[in-house]
Amino acid sequence: MPVSAPEEKCAACGGALQPRAGRRGRTSVYCSAACRQRAYRERRGPGPAGSVRELIADVAQRAGRLAPQQPGTFYADVTELSASVGRLRRIARTARDAAEGAAAEGAAAEGAAAEGAAAEGAATAVEGGTAEVTAAEGRTAENVTPPLVTKPRPDGLDDADFAGLMEAYRRELQVHCYRMTGSYDESEDLVQETFLKAWRRRETYEGRAAVRAWLYRIATNTCLDHLRRHTRTPDRYERLPGMAHGDADPPVRVTWLQPYPDELLADVPAPDAGPEAQAVARETVDLVFLTALQHLPPRQRAVLVLRDVVGLPAAETAGLLDLSTAAVNSALQRARPALRAHLPAGERAEWAPLTPPTPAELAAVERYRLAAERLDTAAMAAALTEDAKLTMPPNPFWFVGRQTIADFVSRSLDPTLPTFFGDWRHVPTRANGRPAVAGYVRRPGTTVYRAQTLEVLRVAGGTARAGGHGGGRIAEITTFEPHLLPAFGLPMTL
Question: Of the four, 31, 54, 63, 97, which is 20 to 30 A from 114 by CA?
Answer without folding.
Answer: 97
